[in-house]
Amino acid sequence: MRERPTVLVTAPLPDDLRDLVAARTDMVATTADALAAPDEALAQRMKEAVGLLTTIRVKIDDDFLDRCPKLKVVSNFAVGFDNVDLEVVQRRQVMICNTPGVLDAAVADIATVMLLCLGRRIFQNDRFVREGSWAKGPAPYSLDIAGKTLGLLGMGRIGRLVAERARAFGLKVAYYKPNRDGEAEAAGLANYLERDALFAESDFLSVHCPLTPKTRGSIGAREFALMKKSAFFVNTARGGIVDEAALIAVLREGRIAGAGLDVMVKEPIPGDHPLCSLPNVILQPHIGSATHETRRAMIELAVRNVLAAVEGRQPEAVVDTAKAA
């Protein structure tokens, strides 16, 4: 009988998928923390592993791959792959898989909901009622959504879905990406603006680009200075794309109207984090894809990816690490 491939699993698996992986591989169920400081038994299993099914908590770099010298595939239970040193995995010929597509609608929903809540002051008005302020006088007015400009920094699958949702609310949609999306423009989904113009002209600026070495910290004081004082900033992509200190500064000083954040530079943030004290910020605990249906679809795809790779078949979703770098 052919020896079953050893696969390390740190991602949470439903019972049926756990049974599936266990039936087709020599599965080693462990945790991200255990992989970072393995005992002698786990260290030996890491030397044998050809596959890893994990979350982005596990950093894939030279040090990790030295401890997993036979590793051929990392299947992330995420669309992001910012836990991966792209240069290292290219050099060492390790395949990286992720879960694109299946979470697009859920993340687009969160981005759209946050911009609507920001514009209509939903969270501020909730507090206004709960704190008894309504009995003292009317609430401050909010903004019409229709007619405002939504700027999308990035126009991939999620950005397109946000554009579709935004058009239903009467928003004018513009976008920037390095390579223009002629199809979206021809369909009337969004108009192209240069990057600086997107920041300057948008009433809502929503981030939809991946975190890569090129995009890390790419939205900072310069970009926020371009934005209108009345504009709102929304990020459902990755916190590391933003210079968080610069964002906090402009929010504190009222140089932009507010922000909606589902992602932060370091997660989770503590309750005494500066963002938590700002009344013009909506904070979510990185739950863009956190629906029962979406997370199930993501983990199913992650499982299919790792099984295909260790069994010598082509996975459904492989990251082009050379292009991403």
Strand arrangement, major sheet: 8-7-6-9-10-11-12
How many H/I helices?
14
DSSP helix fraction? 25-40%
Estimate the strand proportion: 5-15%
CATH topology name of the largest domain, in short, is Rossmann fold
What is the CATH class name of the largest domain?
Alpha Beta
Question: Could you say which structural class the secondary elements and strand pairing correspond to?
Answer: alpha/beta
Mean pLDDT: 97
Q: What is the gyration radius calculated from CA atoms? A: 22 Å
CATH superfamily of the largest domain: NAD(P)-binding Rossmann-like Domain
Known CATH architecture of the largest domain: 3-Layer(aba) Sandwich
> What global shape is seen?
elongated
Which residues sit in consecutive blocks of at least 5 with pLDDT less than 50? none
Distance from first to last alpha carbon: 40 Å
How would a textbook summarize the main sheet?
Answer: 7 strands, parallel
Q: What order do the SSEs take from the amino end to the carboxyl end, as H and E? A: EHEHHEHEHEHHEHEHEHEHEHEEHH
What does this structure look like?
The chain is of the alpha/beta class and 325 residues long. It folds into two domains: 6-102 and 293-324, Rossmann fold; 104-283, Rossmann fold, CATH 3.40.50. Helix content is 38%, strand content 14%. The protein is built from 14 helices and twelve strands. A seven-stranded parallel β-sheet has the order 8-7-6-9-10-11-12, with helices on both faces. The model has no long low-confidence stretch (mean pLDDT 97).
